């Protein structure tokens, strides 16, 4: 197995474990963090991404997101031959991460069996106000900003320079990406929950569908295409914009 694929799997697993974990912690009954609110969720997701990047970054570059992989490939910063392997690894990592959240909070899911919408929200996103066009626009714009910022972080003015020689900032790049995720969550997350990542949304949604969760509802399949198509469209737009302006 290509070690980059393995680390994309592990990094995405950690991202979803901690990201869906903060949703479970703040939502499920009898959790000590229940009711902690949106700021904690946004911070938790930002730090979840940071942890995944710190683990996978040195080996795979830590895309941890099929939309990021697509955007980097379109922008010419990533080999197209690796795209499929990265996406498969990310999707599998997202699924396993969601299963681990369920195992970790299993007693709390039982205590929340009378709130099927709340339980679904610990796995994947659903819109605050269902409106397919507006929901799609939300995911496109949020992901476009995310991928454009990631691409911009790799430009000359943002790379580490020592003695006039440009180099990689390595894992230090995890911190600005963390800040971008937090900012997007706090500013643009209120409409759809800012999925921005098919591996963060579709994979845990599949886990919700197959896990034996007492009292669960359907997995929201009518909405599920939006947090997949929106991020992919947004990433492609970000790559095109990046090539245009840089």
What kind of sheet is the major sheet?
2 strands, antiparallel
Number of domains: 1
- Please give the CATH class: Mainly Alpha
Mean pLDDT comes to 94
CATH superfamily: Glycerol uptake facilitator protein
DSSP helix fraction: 55-70%
Order the strands across the largest sheet as they lie in space.
Answer: 1-2
Q: Overview of this structure, please?
A:
With 246 residues, the chain is an all-alpha fold. It has one domain: Glycerol uptake facilitator protein (Up-down Bundle), CATH 1.20.1080. Helices cover 65% and strands 2% of the residues. A two-stranded antiparallel sheet has the order 1-2. Strand 1 and strand 2 form a beta hairpin. Helix 1 packs antiparallel against helix 2. The longest helix is centred in the first third of the chain and has 25 residues. About 2% of the residues have low confidence.
Write the layout of secondary structure elements.
Layout (H helix, E strand, L loop, with lengths): L2 H25 L10 H23 L5 H9 L8 H22 L1 H6 L4 H6 L10 H22 L6 E3 L2 E3 L6 H15 L9 H13 L15 H20 L1
Antiparallel strand pairs: 1-2
Helix pairs in contact: 1-2, 1-4, 2-8, 3-4, 3-7, 3-10, 4-9, 7-8, 7-10
Q: Could you give a short description of this structure?
A:
65% of the residues lie in helices and 2% in strands.
